[in-house]
Amino acid sequence: MKFGGTSMAGTERIRRVANIVRKQAAGGNEVAVVVSAMAGETDRLVNFCREANALYDPAEYDVVVASGEQVTSGLLALTLQSLGAKARSWLGWQLPVRTIEAHAKARIADIDGDELTASMEAGEIAVIPGFQGLSDDGRITTLGRGGSDTSAVAVAAAVGADRCDIYTDVDGVYTTDPRIVAKARKLKAVTYEEMLELASVGAKVLQTRSVGLAMKEGVRVQVLSSFVGDDAVPADELPGTMIVSEEEMNELVEKGLVERQHVTGIAHDKNEAKVILTRVPDKPGAVAHIFEPLAKASINVDMIIQNVGRDKGETDVTFTVPQADLARAQALLEDKRDDIGYNRLITDSKIAKISVVGVGMKSHAGVAATMFQALADRGINIQAITTSEIKVSVMIDEDETELAVRVLHTAYGLDAADEAA
Ligand code: ADP
Ligand code: ASP
Ligand code: MG
């Protein structure tokens, strides 16, 4: 069971979580719980790091930001004990959760589940802080924002759990962010492939890596709310959204339990920025010159557009990078100006990426055309387009994000019926 920040925000809410956990254990299950820091706490800690040193050392940043989860794991263990349950906390370095790669965005390499399993078999509820791990050289690491989801899936895989229930502040995965579209519909099930794509284009309900890991390890994941009823419904009734394989999805559709749509969901992402380089030489190697320094600096480039060269053998190149990396990208490109040979460097952070996702696209034409027409009808200008087998993304002005999401939700027939909304 994993509980997110809103579920852990304060002693009253932690008591509610403890009750949900205790019920699950009382039902004869062995339970491991992964917790997030209290809502807002990680942001607060990140700000302290920035204030202390704008160019902070990521290793020390990890020491600071990992503390939020240490607090909530101890508090949940204490609360469970106060309710008469046996419980103990296991910090990342105690299990340990071994991680590789960079601080602040580490990846879980493995978790030794033996001690954990033994303690659970002995009737103890295991409480594990999410988000944190231990590097090769013995230092505390964190997994990137939203990383507790990945911790939960990794623990589930390590102990061979029957299921990984991700409790959050919404009761499942919706056709789009229910905070933006009131008529968003809850999905009974969504495939790993679609959830992976939705998460990677901005549906923050699950961290992208958690979905990839669940897919690889075959972990059964359910997303559900910890805020249902007085005491949340026991998860055994599967009240949330199940993440399922393609085969399971086909079975659900055949049984008439799930309706297949061409588009499963719509997501938005306001965290990218656009970079334009004008009058780049239109010759072999020019684009390589642009992206090589960015790759070396681990800056992820997403949408890329290069126009067909016009006269004088020159062309414009446009692409997006995470907003957080924009200043670094800009500095690197200015540094390489002579090598690349561009004329002007223009940036814009006021953009958003809107994506529609669905496996139905593989076999159905016209999904992109519907998107372009619906946006055109509302006068929303498209600045760039990218597609994959099950996704179409467009870049638009950030101010038009909410409108675009609503319009597309309606255009694809995803709105909940009025009486249900
Ligand atoms: P937690 O703190 O529990 O990890 P998050 O804030 O990370 O919770 O994720 C839950 C939020 O994800 C919801 O409150 C919702 O606003 C947002 N969200 C975005 N897209 C979706 C979607 N398609 N379905 C459900 N929630 C979504
Ligand atoms: N507390 C961390 C964050 O806010 C990890 C998580 O909650 O998943 O990003
Ligand atoms: Mg989250």
UniProtKB/TrEMBL annotation:
<keyword id="KW-0457">Lysine biosynthesis</keyword>
<feature type="domain" description="ACT">
    <location>
        <begin position="356"/>
        <end position="421"/>
    </location>
</feature>
<keyword id="KW-0418">Kinase</keyword>
<keyword id="KW-0808">Transferase</keyword>
<comment type="pathway">
    <text>Amino-acid biosynthesis; L-methionine biosynthesis via de novo pathway; L-homoserine from L-aspartate: step 1/3.</text>
</comment>
<dbReference type="InterPro" id="IPR036393">
    <property type="entry name" value="AceGlu_kinase-like_sf"/>
</dbReference>
<keyword id="KW-0067">ATP-binding</keyword>
<keyword id="KW-0547">Nucleotide-binding</keyword>
<dbReference type="Pfam" id="PF22468">
    <property type="entry name" value="ACT_9"/>
</dbReference>
<comment type="similarity">
    <text>Belongs to the aspartokinase family.</text>
</comment>
<feature type="domain" description="ACT">
    <location>
        <begin position="275"/>
        <end position="347"/>
    </location>
</feature>
<protein>
    <recommendedName>
        <fullName>Aspartokinase</fullName>
        <ecNumber>2.7.2.4</ecNumber>
    </recommendedName>
</protein>
<keyword id="KW-0028">Amino-acid biosynthesis</keyword>
<dbReference type="GO" id="GO:0004072">
    <property type="term" value="F:aspartate kinase activity"/>
</dbReference>
<dbReference type="InterPro" id="IPR045865">
    <property type="entry name" value="ACT-like_dom_sf"/>
</dbReference>
<dbReference type="InterPro" id="IPR001048">
    <property type="entry name" value="Asp/Glu/Uridylate_kinase"/>
</dbReference>
<dbReference type="InterPro" id="IPR054352">
    <property type="entry name" value="ACT_Aspartokinase"/>
</dbReference>
<dbReference type="InterPro" id="IPR001341">
    <property type="entry name" value="Asp_kinase"/>
</dbReference>
<dbReference type="InterPro" id="IPR005260">
    <property type="entry name" value="Asp_kin_monofn"/>
</dbReference>
<dbReference type="Pfam" id="PF00696">
    <property type="entry name" value="AA_kinase"/>
</dbReference>
<dbReference type="InterPro" id="IPR002912">
    <property type="entry name" value="ACT_dom"/>
</dbReference>
<comment type="pathway">
    <text>Amino-acid biosynthesis; L-lysine biosynthesis via DAP pathway; (S)-tetrahydrodipicolinate from L-aspartate: step 1/4.</text>
</comment>
<dbReference type="InterPro" id="IPR041740">
    <property type="entry name" value="AKii-LysC-BS"/>
</dbReference>
<dbReference type="Pfam" id="PF01842">
    <property type="entry name" value="ACT"/>
</dbReference>
